[in-house]
Every structure is written in C-alpha cells, then in structure tokens.
Design a protein that fits this description.
The complex is a heterodimer of chains A (about 210) and B (about 400). Chain A is mainly beta. In chain A, the strands form three sheets. Chain A has a nine-stranded antiparallel beta sheet, with no helix packed on it. Chain B is globular. Chain B has an 18-stranded antiparallel β-barrel. Chain B has a three-stranded mixed beta sheet with strand order 8-12-11, with no helix packed on it. Chain B is mainly β and about 400 residues long. Chain B is built from one helix and 21 strands. Classes of the chains: A mainly beta (about 210), B mainly beta (about 400).
Chain lengths: ~210, ~400
C-alpha cells in the first residue's frame, strides 16, 4: 500500500491478506511493515446485518482486542480508502440504477449508479464502470452530500486466476478534495489454499505467528 | 559473582544453545521468521517521594529478539524471544525470555510447553484477570514487560467456546533490583529474602483454567487461578544493620474472575472483576468502564478501579477514576490521561507520544506527573513520582 499525501510524500505499508468468502465473509490482515507494526493483525468478520465484527492482535502485548467497527466511513489505516470501500462490496448493500453504456479506454462499458443502503455510509452515491465482456470493475466515482465528487478509484492490470477469478494488480484511489492518493499493489494472489473458518477465529489470533 | 549474575549467565548459555538447535536441528523444510529491536531510553526523575532519587537520571538499553521456526506445514513451532536490558547505573541488568517454547497445533486443540506469555482481559486501566506472568516493574510503557512463565498449556476449541488449561510448575519472583526497588518508595524494597506462606521459593506449582467465548456483541470470559499471587504485598521490615526495608510477601490465593466486553457500534463497555482470598481474607476487586470511538483514530476511555482492601491494597488505585484519550496518527500516536483517587483527589497524569521517523525507527516520549499530597498515599505507592522519559527504537 503506497500512501501519497498532497505534497507527494510517500509512505509504504506492506500487508499479507487472507480472505474467506462464504456465509460470513472474513478478512485477515497481517502487517509486515512498518517494522514497529510487524505481526499486528486485524480480523474482520461480516455480520448478517451488513456490519463487521473486528479484532486486533497486538504482538507486543500478545493481546487480542475486540475493536469498534462502527465507523465504516473511517479511513482504512490512514489511507484514502474507507473501510467500506474494502469490506462491504456485497450486492445487497446498495440499490442500483442503470445509467447506460459508454466507451472507456476503447472498451465497451456498462455504467451503473449505486446508492448505499446503510445510513452510516460516507457516500451519497457511487458511479461504477464495469466492462461488458467480463464484468470487471474498472472505475468507481464516489460522491458525498450535495452530489460533490470526492474520490475516484481506478483498477488496472486485471488477470484471471484459477481460470475464473479476475483480480486487478493495482487499485489507485485519488481524493479530489485533499489531493492525496493511495495505491494498492497486489502480489502473489492464491486461490483455494485450504483456509477455513477456523483460520479466521478471534480466539486463535494469538497463535504463534 | 552474585546470584543474579549467575542466573543471567546460565540463561544466556541456554539461549545460545537453543538458538543453535533451532537454526540447525530442525527440519530444513520449515520456515523461520526473525525480528528484533534495540531501544535506548533516558529517564529523568524530576521528583520522587524518595529523597535519594529526586533529580536522578537513568539510561537504559533494551535489546529484544524474536525467532520463530515452523515446520510440519505450520503444525509445530518453536519460539525463542529473549530480551536483554543493560542499565547505565549498573544495577538493573537483566537477561530473560518472553517466550522459549515448543507448540503443536491441531484443528481442535493446541499444546504448548515452555516459557510463554499470556494476556487475558479487556480493560485499559487495570488488569485483574491477567494473572499468569510475572511483570518487570522497571520497564515503563503500557503494560510493562512480562517474563515468560514456564508452563504446560492446552487449548481446545469445542463448540461452546475456548478452553485454556495452564499448568505452571515453578514460580517467578518480581525483581526489585538495587536502587530501582526504591524508585517509587522512600523505603527500599529488598527482594533478597521474600516471604511465602509455605514451601520453597522456586517450586511453587500453580494452575489456571479459563473459558471464553464470543456471543454476538459480547465477549465473555471466566477464569480460575490457584497458586502464588504474582503481585506481592510489601511488608515493613529491618535489615540486620537496622536499616528499614520493605519485604515482598507472596500470598497463596485462589482467584475467580469474570471479564466481559459489549461492543455496540461506537460504544465499548468493559468489565473485569475478581474475588481473591489472600492470608488476610477474601476481597473483591473490579475495573470497568467504557470506550467511545469517535472515529477510527480517536477514542476516549473512562473507567473506575476498585479494590475491596481499601487502603490496605497493593495498588494505590483502589478507588480511582481513570480517564484518557487516544489519537492515532498516520505516523504515530498520542495518549493522555490520568488516575484520580476519589477520596484524596491525588492524581497521576500521563502523556505518551510516539512518532515514526522511518520504516524502522520510532521515537517516543512518556511523561508522568504526581499531583497531590504524598502523605495520603500508602508507603509503597507507585504513583509518587514525576518523570519524563525519551526513547528511540530501531526495529530489525
């Protein structure tokens, strides 16, 4: 994760991410850098009501802490991504309106507006560009109150994994208001690695890692 | 050589041999992970209730390492986490382990043998349930460094939560080394001849069992501990020379504790309560309160600490209100707050600031101030000093 502030100063964060999709989507993030956070883990488990339960593991104290996930519009680790940009992408979280088709970078796109159902969302609406061929999301514009454009997210370098999962190599979020941006650079995707629910259990977060 | 030096030497030897074993003796197919940090700390005591220690300066170097070796597809692991503290004053040197253990995990259970560190509990200002490890009173910071506790630990994950069984064959004393033992007390603590109700100093078995479970918004735990209390009472005594000293007295206790946290959106309600039965009679202690999260990066904490022994408590936070704020920044954090005694209104204030300078270097400042009248405090009260410390930490 590369965080660039408005003056162009860059900070780097390295994370290992594992995820399980199923009845309850789970995401586990483990920090590799900065070095003072190395081994720190954040576990997020989606609840039926659309919110997440979150636990933090602090290796310096060998402590597992349940933390608040109430602020979904809050920044994800100081980046331009909000928690909701990363965690709540399920179909049921929005209502939709078809806008039309359009060409983006020479490709045929479907453009859809979506409105967050959750009153706690930080956005009034989002405009999503999806390619007509493979339904890959290539761009999302985020709007806030009074329809002001706030951020734009662009996806680059899609590749297909395990024959069916399209994943981007890079996601760049630009904040138009602050001039800051965050780039997520993904490496070493692996699917079907045999993880199960028990690998996302808060009571096992403190296992030697 | 004195006793502590001899102890440090054999610990160093064991560590060295273990490192050789871990690096060479284990299956080559495994994975290894190493981390380390070197910290320099300077501490100025600007005021202390002990006249010897006002306007005193301490310099400390701390080296910590962590080596974890895993094999059998992660099912088995060895963890070696030593730390070394070198004190410019020469009285607080220490070499010890936070971990020195082997573990084996299966889907439904896990077994660990060796020295381990365990954290149990939910509150911020006090830790009543966290009874397994001895703590180092000389290390500043949120929780202080804990010493690894030799144990056999079995954890199992049945349908109804997590069960944790810990059997501890030996006891680890709290060090009150040299003048540091008098850091916060006008009378020095002499840890040379601690008192026990019965039995030898080292071979003091203890056991603990804990059940915990997450049920929706609730995190619940029930903990039972039987053995020697890690936290000594300090009793007045005299040396042969006639000099007044405080002598650590370790009680045999059985303790039943409950911890609970309710996480409801931005409100986090936390409670730890325990009942203990030392020699002087059973009592109840509790810590509880709430955290309110304004945004991911800003929280406030309000907690109340109670100890049924009142003025006879081993803590001076026996009827105190704790309040604090925490601000997380992209490259650091700020925490500020304090404890205020409800009756005397004596207060301890603290400020902690951390700033990350680069990927591997963090500097920090910690200030503590005692406000109030010290004659209202028990003679061993830890709160009676005002100090500022600066740290620089390099991570590897």
């Amino acid at each position: 994760m590369l965080l660039r502030d408005r003056d162009g100063k860059e900070r780097r964060r390295e994370l290992r991410i594992s995820a399980l999709e199923g009845d309850a989507d789970c995401i586990l993030l483990v920090f590799d850098s900065p070095r003072d956070l190395e081994g720190t883990a954040l576990l997020s488990v989606a609840r039926a009501d659309g919110d997440d339960d979150q636990w933090l593991y602090l290796p310096a104290f060998k402590r597992v802490k349940r933390v608040s996930s109430g602020v979904r519009s809050g920044s994800f680790m100081g980046s331009e991504f909000a928690y909701e940009d990363i965690t709540s992408q399920e179909v049921d979280n929005f209502t939709y309106r078809y806008v039309g088709s359009e060409k983006l970078n020479g490709k045929e796109m479907v453009v859809v507006e979506r409105y967050p159902r959750d009153a706690q969302s930080g956005y009034s609406r989002q405009v999503v560009w999806v390619d007509a061929a493979e339904y890959r999301t290539l761009r999302i514009d985020y709007y806030v109150r009074e329809d002001t454009p706030l951020k734009t997210l662009r996806f680059r370098g899609y590749r297909r994994y395990a024959g069916r999962y399209w994943r981007p190599a890079e996601m760049e979020m630009v904040n138009h208001r602050s001039g800051a941006s965050t780039k997520l650079i993904w490496r070493d995707y692996a699917f079907g690695t045999g993880l199960d629910k028990r690998d996302f259990d808060p009571s096992r977060l403190d296992r030697i890692r | 050589m004195d006793r502590s030096r001899i102890r440090a030497s054999w610990r160093a030897l064991i560590a060295f041999l273990l490192l050789i074993v871990v690096f060479t003796g284990l299956p080559a197919s495994g994975t290894a992970q190493t981390r380390g940090e070197v910290r320099i700390e300077g501490r100025w005591l600007t005021w202390s209730s002990s006249p010897y220690h006002s306007h005193r300066y301490d310099g400390t170097l701390v080296v910590r390492g962590s080596l974890i070796r895993r094999w059998s597809d992660g099912a088995q692991a060895v963890a070696v986490e030593p730390f070394l503290r070198v004190d410019a004053g020469g009285e607080r040197h220490r070499f010890d382990f936070r971990s020195l253990s082997w573990s084996m995990r299966r889907t439904a259970w896990e077994i660990e043998i060796g020295m381990r560190e365990i954290f149990w509990g939910v509150t911020e200002s006090g830790h009543l349930i966290d009874v397994i490890n001895q703590r180092d009173p000389e290390v500043s910071g949120e929780a202080g460094v804990k010493f690894g506790q030799p144990m056999l630990r079995v954890r199992a994950w049945p349908r109804w939560g997590t069960v944790d069984l810990v059997l501890m064959p030996v006891f680890r004393e709290r060090p009150f080394a040299g003048s540091a033992g008098a850091l916060w007390s006008p009378i020095p603590v002499d840890d040379g001849e601690p008192q026990f109700e019965w039995g030898p100093r080292l071979l003091r078995p203890a056991s603990a069992i804990r059940w915990s479970q997450t049920l929706g918004a609730w995190d619940l735990g029930l903990t039972y501990f039987k053995g020697t209390n890690r936290q000594p009472r300090l009793q007045p005594g005299r040396k042969e020379s006639g000099r007044k000293i405080l002598v650590p007295h370790y009680d045999e206790i059985d303790q039943l504790g409950i911890d609970a946290q309710l996480t409801a959106g931005s409100w986090l309600w936390k409670l730890e309560t325990a009942t203990l039965d030392p020699e002087e009679g059973r009592y109840v202690a509790a810590v509880g309160g709430l955290e309110y999260v304004f945004a991911d990066y800003f929280s406030i904490f309000v907690e109340y600490l109670f100890d049924g022994r009142g003025d006879g408590a081993t803590t001076s936070f026996e009827d105190d209100l704790y309040s604090a704020v925490r601000l997380l920044l992209p490259d650091g954090s700020v925490q500020a707050g304090g404890y205020t005694d409800r009756e005397s209104l004596n207060a301890v204030l603290f400020l902690r600031v951390d700033r990350r300078l680069s990927d591997a270097v963090v500097i920090g400042l910690e200030a503590r101030a005692f406000l109030g009248r010290d004659e209202r405090e028990p003679p061993h009260a830890r709160r009676q000093h005002t100090s500022i410390s600066l740290t620089a930490t390099r991570h590897f």
